[in-house]
Every structure is written in C-alpha cells, then in structure tokens.
C-alpha cells in the first residue's frame, strides 16, 4: 500500500484535482522574499505549475516517478507547502486522509480484478478548469485477470 500511496501522490503532484487556488489577504503583510501584500488583495497560486517546478521537485520534475515518495520502501510525505494538492496549514483539506483511503480502495479493487489498458491512439489531454479533468475522457480496455471473479461475466471491449 505504500507504493500505491506514492503513485497516487505522484499523480496528484502532476495532475492536482484543483490546479489553481487563491487566498485573500486579511491584513497587510510581507512575504519572506519581500513581496508586499495589502489587505483585500487576492493571491493566486498555481498548484499545477508548482508540481512541475524544477526548483521544488528537481530535474526529473516532469517525470511520473512514485519512488520520489518512498524512503527505504516506506511512504514519506512532503510538506503541504511543497505538495499543495490538499492545501496546507490551517486550510489543509479535512478530507485528505479519507480521499486517499477512497482512491486506494477503488484502485486496489479494480487492479485486483482487471488488467487496465488505455485504448491505443486515445488522446490523453488534461483540461484545466476549476477542477481538472480529462478533456476527452479516458477510454480504457478492461480484461479480467486470469480467473473468474466472484461469478462476474468476462468483460472485453472498450469502456
């Protein structure tokens, strides 16, 4: 489950559910780099871009590499300010752990029973909006793994 958790985190690093977020300044402040913020200003931050920044993630920042989340085979989390897919600080998503649980449960259930292959030639294009989704959906081919699963019929073809 550590590797699955790492793979999901890596997918969220590259394709966060909410690619852009903003905050409103409630009182005048100065950021560590000297940027002056005035009360009422909006600060946008691009979670999608942050997941691809070499300064944050290293030279291989555009590669899908779940191993970056593992240390001696165990999942190692990153700072919520580095990995902002669930926000951070007092605004961290209260459902973060439940979301990971759901994603792992669904992935493990599907992968236990089926082999999943993306249909050849299907365009894989993310659509940036308030939430990120696949512009053309994701066409896959499912096939049962080498056994009958709880009396389920054999599935073949595009889904």
Provide an overview of this structure:
The protein has four helices and ten strands; from the N terminus they run H-E-E-E-E-H-H-E-E-H-E-E-E-E. It has 159 residues and is an alpha+beta fold. The longest helix is centred in the middle third of the chain and has 18 residues. The protein starts with a helix and ends in a 15-residue tail after the last strand.
Determine the number of helices (DSSP H or I, runs of at least 4 residues): 4
Order of helical and strand elements: HEEEEHHEEHEEEE
Strand order of the largest sheet: 1-4
Q: How would you sum up the major sheet?
A: 2 strands, antiparallel
Strand content: 15-25%
What class do helices, strands and sheet pairing give? Answer: alpha+beta
First-to-last CA distance: 26 Å
Low-confidence runs (pLDDT<50, min 5 residues)? Answer: none
Radius of gyration: 19 Å
Principal-axes geometry comes out as elongated
What order do the helices and strands come in, and which of them pair?
Elements: H1 2-14, E1 20-24, E2 29-30, E3 36-37, E4 42-46, H2 47-50, H3 54-57, E5 70-71, E6 74-75, H4 96-113, E7 114-118, E8 126-127, E9 133-134, E10 140-144
Antiparallel strand pairs: 1-4, 2-3, 5-6, 7-10, 8-9
List the defining traits of the structure above.
single chain, 159 residues, alpha+beta, two-stranded antiparallel ribbon, 4 helices
């Amino acid at each position: 489950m550590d590797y699955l958790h790492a793979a999901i985190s890596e997918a969220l690093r590259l394709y966060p559910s909410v690619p852009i977020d903003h905050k409103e300044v409630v009182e005048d402040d100065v950021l560590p780099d000297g940027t002056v913020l005035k009360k009422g200003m909006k600060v946008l931050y691009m979670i999608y871009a942050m997941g691809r920044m070499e300064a944050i993630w290293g030279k291989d920042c555009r590669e899908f590499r779940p191993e970056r989340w593992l240390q001696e085979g165990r999942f190692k989390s990153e700072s919520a300010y580095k990995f902002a897919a669930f926000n951070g600080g007092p605004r961290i998503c209260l459902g973060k752990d439940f979301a990971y649980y759901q994603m792992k449960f669904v992935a493990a259930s599907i992968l236990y029973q089926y082999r999943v292959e993306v249909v050849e030639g299907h365009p894989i294009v993310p659509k940036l909006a308030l939430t990120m989704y696949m512009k053309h959906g994701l066409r896959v081919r499912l096939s049962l793994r080498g056994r009958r699963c709880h009396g389920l019929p054999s599935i073949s073809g595009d889904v």
